[in-house]
Structures are given as structure tokens and as C-alpha cells.
Amino acid sequence: MNVSLPCLYSFRRCPYAMRARLGLLFAELPVALREITLKNKPEQMLAISPKGTVPVLQLLDGSVIEESAEIMMWALEQNDPQKLLDASVLSQANALIARNDNEFKQWLDRYKYADRHPEMTQTEYRQQGEVFLQDLEALLIENDYLIGDSITVADIGVMPFVRQFAHVDREVFYDLPYPKLQRWLQDWLEHPVFIQAMTKFQPWQEGDEIVVFSV
Ligand SMILES: N[C@@H](CCC(=O)N[C@@H](CS)C(=O)NCC(=O)O)C(=O)O
Questions:
Q1: How far is the CA of 162 from the centre of ligand 1 (A)?
Q2: Protein residues whose CB sits closer than 6 Å to any atom of ligand 1
Q3: 55-68 residue pLDDT tens
Q4: Ligand 1: residue whose CA is nearest its atom 17
Q5: Could you give the domains of the chain?
């Protein structure tokens, strides 16, 4: 079978790639998925995106989207049956995603790899990350999802990073005083779209059969 689909370079455990895959699944846009390993990036990916991060999406016209938030937005702009990208949520969603990427992610990395950053203790890094989590908890006290009572792009943009934070030490995370956030994360981990987004694939090699990634 000869299928022409946009091509997504992805890495299963990467939170940025997770948000891109979630965006594509919620948009119901099939792509050809190429799983990579960070230690052995395919030359075909580096040729279209020399910065060497995943996710990378190459469209059928050859253009390349190499930022995860842009892939998510692009996908939902093409098709958004569940209205994740309603105009009314856009500015709040963009602000939350920007805070996640520019502020929370730094503390998350230091919390996860505290031994590489001896300037502060792991607990202090965790507490810095919790500043963002407290704000998410406040939003989830008001509504079932981060912006209102249905899933928006903010939820799928932020959730993979909260998951990573929780997985640094699950016992510690579930002991923190954020019951709404813990419930929200737990619901996401059991959500069928997230489960599908976490399907395992073998790393791609030239000549492999196309792997269609779709709902
Ligand atoms: N700003 C980028 C960041 C993507 C990113 O940093 N991805 C990591 C994996 S989680 C990566 O590819 N790192 C390259 C490497 O470790 O070599 C985006 O949003 O897509």
C-alpha cells in the first residue's frame, strides 16, 4: 500500500512529543510515525530539522513544523471535532503552555536530575515546580479541566509535563496537597486517547513499512 501522509518524528517518552501526538489524535489526523532514539537520530530527520529535537512534523508540501506547541495547534486548526481550540480559550491556553515550557519545565528538569544541579536540593527544586502546580490546582478547583469543563489544548499541552513531574517520585507526588490535580492526572493516564498516544513502536529505519498513527 502506498500511503501519502505527513510524517511525524517522535520519541515515545518525550513530553513534547506526547503533546504533539495528542494534538494529532484529537484532530483525527493520521500521520506516518517514525519513532526515534535520541542517541541515534535519523539523518532524514536532521536533514529537515538540524536542531535535532523531537517532535518534528513534515507536511506533504515539504514544510516542516519543529516545535511541539505549533504541531498541536496546527493539527487542531486543520480539524477540531472536540473543540479543544475554541477561540475563547486560546489566550489562556497559550499563557499556560508558555509558562509550562519557560518556567515549570526548568524546575521539572532540575527536580528530576537534582544530582546534576547541586546549587539547590531536590526538595527545593520540587517546591519551585509546585508553584505552577498550585496554580493548576486552583484552576481545577474551579473546573473539571484547566480551562472550563471540557478538554482544551491547555490540558494536552501541559499534562505530559505534570506526568513527568509526578513520575520523578509518585509517592511524594500523590502525598502533595493537590487532590484535583492528582485526579486530573489520573484521569488522563486512563484516558483512551492518552493510552493510544503512548503506543510503543520500534525505532524507525529506512525501508521499514509505514506506521500509520491515527485514531
Ligand atoms: N521546544 C521544543 C523542545 C523539544 C525537546 O527538547 N525535545 C527533547 C526530547 S524530550 C529532545 O528532542 N532533545 C534532544 C536531545 O536530547 O538530543 C519543542 O517544543 O518541540
A1: 16
A2: 11, 14, 16, 38, 52-55, 67-69
A3: 999 999 999 999 99
A4: 38
A5: 7-82+195-213 (3.40.30.10), 87-191 (1.20.1050.10)
